[in-house]
Write a structure and sequence with these properties.
Homodimer. The protein is mainly alpha-helical. 84% of the residues lie in helices and 0% in strands. The chain has one domain.
Length: 746
């Protein structure tokens, strides 16, 4: 950090201190959660089955991930030897720059992957420690205690995300200084790749189990959700943890990383233009402010329901969480403005951070409108159940399509703010402004992840309570918390998608900037913009737009195939004497084994397709076409992800509306239609939709890392060999995804 002034060095050390404070707070939350009562022996029996299933799944997934990571470690190390390191790295490290950057990028990749794994694995484990304790609090009639326990267990994951994300990015900056982007690319890629694995695997697991359990238990047998006679129930509860806890945490963690990477890459360009180092230091300090804000906000959640002033007292858990989110938002905005004026003398940076926070807040009412059963879209879906599953599904898909359009409008309005704020200035300022929107949007990651993890914890607590036969009073408390959790999960899913688009857009601008730097260095025409009027760029744009649909199709079919196996197993076990009567316990482990194996099958093939196709486009059609490819991925990925997530959420809440007693209630024909609609929506909202977030960023990061190689070696013999290898990988990925035996019987 020799390039920085003494005061700036103090601020960076302060950022490190804040990161450790977040990790200490997370440790405190873990201990507080673990110290609570675990309830009755019957509750603990169910809980232990969930714990065994989730930990077994994560162990198997870790083995699958490790094989790919080991191969990529070698490739990343050698990538620096193919294309020389940046001029900043040469200036900092001299003749040893190549070796130091190669080691730095490789180690950063390992650290990013490790941190992302820790966030997912430890976050899920603490969530599982919390679920049975929430049930125990509810049995004692302690609503606020159940809320506090569930929220604290979820907040652990949020603060771990904050602490590790801030710590990793800041330490890399401290070691590499203004050459940090060379290593940060590895850090971001490691976290993003692990998130992609966790999102895909967790999504396939959770929805295969959920669909199988519901289609047999609810539709065929008229049993309530989480009925202990249903062999798929434990796998369903396990899936909530590996999908929504581990998967979402890793997803948002890598968005958190990627926005730091893009802001430092673009900030470095502005540093060279202006000579001012605040373009690099400011994003890190604002992230630290956001961590402090999240600590304050999350600590306040249990207080709102007991607030002395009645007019400030929250009426339920949802309002308590939203109130705390607003508290954190106000603290962050005011602190960012004060810091920006004091340090940089530049109010525009803080205003863009505020736009990012406002964008996150705006998705609350937008998502609520399309997914809440108090609003017209979901009520229309619920009414359509009276005429069968076909009209139910069509209504839900229509709601999802419409919501994706309005989400794009909101994101475009946020992006336009950077255009207006830096109107008349060089384009690099506007691009940096987009990165600042991303920094602001994810500054309250602690709150966001806490709200998301709260959902599966409350859902699991409700399931444990039903399987253990808790009193009606306790069931009411857990049902209320579960309902709030469904809302917070829907909101954070939308936020994750929006953050993915903002992060990917910032990376897209970093791609153009980085390509221009390399082209200038080797003396070829510099790429300043992407022309859509040339044939190669049109081809790139079309292929980029097609990739999210191919990716989603494979993920959805993987869920369907796994769900078929679960349905067959659950049906088989219902035929065992004593299971339906409740005198014999089903073999829950068999369904857990089926879903665990199914979740691993398409992991490698989906990653292979996502990595190979952008590289093929760049090597065959050159780097400008690769830029158009990225634009197509971002556009289609955003529309498709929101469409699927909202459609699934709306269909789910329409089912819950009917289960509350409307249109005949549970067991009616309308209810059966709503369950079938929900099972269609489940893989959309919890598998394919969310998995597109890390896929979009993986594609952008791979392209950013490969762009210098493509610029320098396009058309060479080595490039032609690489094309042949990549075609083989892509074809293998498609073939692997179709390895499914179809049996036709008369």
């Amino acid at each position: 950090m020799n390039e920085l002034a003494a005061f700036e060095q103090m601020m960076i050390w302060g950022v490190i201190g804040v990161a450790f404070s977040a990790l200490i707070y997370a440790l405190w939350l873990w201990k507080k959660t673990s110290s609570e009562d675990k309830g009755t022996e019957k509750m603990q029996t169910v809980w232990k089955a969930i714990k065994r299933g989730a930990e077994g799944y994560l162990r198997k997934q870790l083995k699958t991930i490790t094989l790919v990571l080991l191969a990529l470690i070698v490739i990343l190390f050698l990538s620096v030897y193919v294309v020389p390191p940046s001029s900043e790295a040469v200036a900092r490290f001299g003749d040893n720059a190549t070796l130091i950057v190669a080691l730095g990028r490789t180690i950063a990749f390992i650290v990013g992957a490790t941190f992302s794994t820790l966030v997912g694995q430890l976050g899920m484990r603490v969530a599982i420690e919390g679920n049975v304790r929430v049930t125990a609090k509810a049995v004692k009639g302690d609503y606020n205690g159940a809320l506090t326990t569930a929220y604290r267990a979820g907040t652990f994951t949020g603060m771990l995300t904050d602490g590790l994300g801030l710590l990793g990015g800041t330490i890399i900056f401290m070691v590499f200084g203004k050459a940090a982007p060379d290593a940060l690319l590895g850090f971001g890629f490691g976290g993003t790749l692990v998130a992609l694995f966790m999102r895909i695997g967790g999504g396939i697991y959770t929805k295969a189990a959920d669909m199988g359990a519901d289609l047999v238990g609810k539709v065929e047998k008229n049993l309530p959700e989480d009925d202990p006679r249903n062999a798929g129930v434990v796998a369903d509860l396990v899936g909530d943890n590996v999908g929504d806890c581990a998967g979402m945490a890793a997803d948002i963690f890598e968005s958190y990383e990627v926005t730091i990477v893009s802001s430092l890459i673009l900030g470095l360009v502005l540093y060279h233009l202006t000579g001012q180092s605040f373009w690099i230091v400011y994003p890190l300090v604002v992230r630290a402010i956001g961590v402090v804000s999240s600590i304050i906000g999350t600590l306040a959640v249990p207080i709102w329901e007991k607030f002395p002033a009645k007019w400030l007292r929250a009426k339920d858990a949802e309002e308590a969480m939203f109130r705390s989110y607003e508290l954190s938002s106000v603290f962050t905005v005011l602190s960012a403005f004060a810091f920006a004026m004091f340090y940089a003398g530049e109010w525009k940076l803080a205003l863009l951070n505020a736009v990012g926070i406002a964008l996150a807040v705006a998705f609350n009412p937008l998502t609520s409108y399309f997914t809440s059963y108090k609003r017209r879209p979901v009520l229309e879906i619920a009414e359509s159940t009276k005429t069968g599953s076909a009209t139910t599904i069509l209504s839900g898909l229509g709601v999802g399509m419409e919501s994706s359009v309005w989400s794009v409008f909101v994101i475009c309005a946020a992006l336009a703010s950077s255009l207006l704020i830096y109107w008349g200035m060089p384009p690099i300022y506007m691009l940096y402004g987009v990165a600042m929107i991303g920094i602001g949007m994810l500054s309250l990651t602690g709150n966001n992840v806490a709200m998301d993890a709260f959902g599966p914890i409350a859902d699991n607590a409700n399931g444990i309570g039903e399987m253990a036969g808790v009193p009606e009073s306790a069931a009411k408390i857990m049902a209320d918390l579960d309902s709030v959790g469904n809302t917070t999960k829907a909101i954070t899913k939308q936020l994750a998608i929006a953050s993915a688009v903002i992060a990917a857009t910032a990376l897209f601008f970093s791609f153009i900037t980085d390509v221009g730097i390399v082209q200038e260095r080797i003396g070829v025409q510099v790429l300043e913009s992407i022309r859509i009027s040339s044939l190669p760029t049109v081809i790139g744009f079309l292929l980029g737009g097609a990739l999210p649909l191919l990716f989603a199709a494979i993920a959805i079919k993987a869920v369907a195939r796994a769900a078929i196996k679960v349905v067959e197993e659950v049906r088989k076990q219902f035929k065992v004497p004593g299971v339906m009567e409740g005198t014999k316990t089903p073999e829950y482990e068999k369904v857990v084994s089926i879903t665990t194996a199914a979740a691993q099958k398409d992991l490698i093939s989906l990653v292979a397709i996502s990595v190979s196709l952008p590289l093929l486009v760049g090597l065959i059609f050159e780097v400008e076409a690769l830029g158009a490819f990225l634009a197509g991925v971002i556009l289609t990925g955003q529309l498709l992800a929101v469409y699927m997530s909202v459609a699934g959420g709306a269909l789910d809440n329409a089912k819950k509306f009917i289960e509350d007693g409307h249109f005949g209630g549970k067991g009616s024909d309308a209810h059966k239609a709503s369950v079938e609609g929900d099972t269609v929506g489940d893989p959309l909202k919890d598998t394919a939709g969310p998995a597109l977030n890390p896929m979009i960023k993986v594609v952008n990061l791979v392209s950013l890392i490969a762009a210098p190689v493509i610029v320098q070696y396009h058309g060479t013999f080595g490039a032609k060999v690489a094309i042949a290898v990549l075609i083989a990988i892509f074809v293998w990925g498609i073939w692997q995804s179709k390895k499914y035996r179809v049996s036709v019987t008369s």
